[in-house]
């Protein structure tokens, strides 16, 4: 996959994944009082402390239970009972404020934030201080990881599609080359009796009929196919033997082709792995060959098409 495309995808995903902290909402005076009291309560009593827990209540407590527990807790936390604690007065004052909120209509508002989360005080966010909900903001490393993952998935899909297409094309050409070279009984002929031959094979060919275990019927079917002659359209020069298949360029040069030369798409064929191999050190001769294997093998199928075009022009 081209690096220009990768850079474009990187830029798009970076923009899409950048999430700013949400702007401050128009909180009411009661909302702000609840936020401030909740923040002070957690700071003094510990994270997770709520209006209900400081009163030894549950969220479903009735008004009568709130009134009763407030009397009990106010006696427990009264500053006169804790003369040695300099923060006793502040604690007792917070208890009174909690009691007032839980005993009027502000309780519903508190319950809402208790269920959905409390915004936190933040200074100079976007130039303004206030209560903001914390939002997760993916960093550059995360954005790059997403880009790498997405491009690798897309590259693998494209490689897989190309591999299956090239495999099918080469298998069809090989079958038809064998039919042209060795006749209708080529499937049943044993190894060692099929000589090397040069043939012309149409580029646009249909799959041969499925193999028939009855040799007589098999040969009859393929004879009929041969009797029709070669279909119209571009053709390529091919040389076939029991050891392989070669494509001619019309100038006396032959290039070996075949499905065995196609590299199956895998993790090692993805661009990050290839890039890492190039960065970590100079590749050996074998390394260069392995690195080019997929492109060269896939290019063989393309070369077939190009050769066919040349042949059609000559004809």
Describe what you observe in this structure.
The chain has helices at residues 3-17, 29-45, 51-54, 63-77, 88-102, 106-116, 140-182, 215-227, 271-280, 285-314, and strands at 120-125, 128-132, 197-202, 235-241, 244-248, 254-257. It is of the alpha+beta class and 315 residues long. A hairpin with a 2-residue loop joins strand 1 (120-125) and strand 2. It folds into 2 domains: 21-132, Helix Hairpins; 140-314, no CATH class. The model is unreliable at 1-8, 14-24 and 285-297 (pLDDT under 50). The longest helix is centred in the middle third of the chain and has 43 residues, at 140-182. Strands 3-4-5-6 form a 4-stranded antiparallel sheet. The protein has a two-stranded antiparallel ribbon with strand order 1-2. The radius of gyration is 39 Å and the shape is rod-shaped. Helices cover 55% and strands 10% of the residues. The protein contains 10 helices and 6 strands, in the order H-H-H-H-H-H-E-E-H-E-H-E-E-E-H-H. The chain starts with a helix and ends with a helix.
Distance between termini?
37 Å
Spatial order of strands in the largest sheet? 3-4-5-6
> How many domains?
2
Strand content: 5-15%
Could you estimate the helical fraction of the residues in percent?
40-55%
Which structural class fits the helix and strand makeup? alpha+beta
The stretches of 5 or more residues where confidence is low (pLDDT under 50) are: 1-8, 14-24, 285-297
Following the backbone from N to C, one meets helices and strands in this order, namely HHHHHHEEHEHEEEHH
The number of distinct β-strands equals: 6
Shape: rod-shaped
Average pLDDT? 81
Q: Rg to the nearest angstrom?
A: 39 Å
Organism: Ceraceosorus bombacis
Domain J: 50-114
Biased composition (Low complexity): 297-306
GO molecular function: DNA binding
